[in-house]
């Protein structure tokens, strides 16, 4: 479970750092790959743990940040998506902690 928590934490931080438009385009490409892969990994783990709501949320994250067939939105929309996704990633961390202790 530690890897899930770590990936979610790093993804959340990277998403918050993406909000100001100070990064080169490569940062946003890296962000897409990292967040999408974290979404896939977390979707698999939450599926195995029977956390269906979290599984759906992580699939949506993986699809939104899909680097192979990227979705394009205006910067203002991406800010909202980044904030919401960071929030979801941060909220998921304690869920993994709860499972470990049960």
> What share of the residues does DSSP label as strand, in percent?
under 5%
Cα-atom radius of gyration:
13 Å
Average pLDDT, all residues: 92
**Weakly predicted, low-confidence segments:** none
Please identify the oligomeric state.
Answer: single chain
The computed structural class is mainly alpha
Q: Categorize the overall geometry.
A: globular
Q: In which range does the helix fraction lie?
A: over 70%
Contiguous helical run count: 4
Helix and strand string, N-terminal first? HHHH
Biggest beta sheet summary: none
The separation of the N and C termini measures: 13 Å
Number of domains: 1
Count of strand segments: 0
How would you characterize this protein structure?
The chain has 102 residues and is an all-alpha fold. It has one domain. It is 78% helix and 0% strand. The chain has 4 helices and no strands. The protein has helices at residues 2-17, 25-48, 52-64, 75-101. Helix 1 packs antiparallel against helix 2.
Compact description:
The chain is an all-alpha fold and 102 residues long. It has four helices and no strands.
Task: Summarize this structure as a short list of keywords or feature phrases.
4 helices; mainly alpha; about 100 residues; single chain; about 80% helix
List the helices and strands and how they pair.
Blueprint: H1 2-17, H2 25-48, H3 52-64, H4 75-101
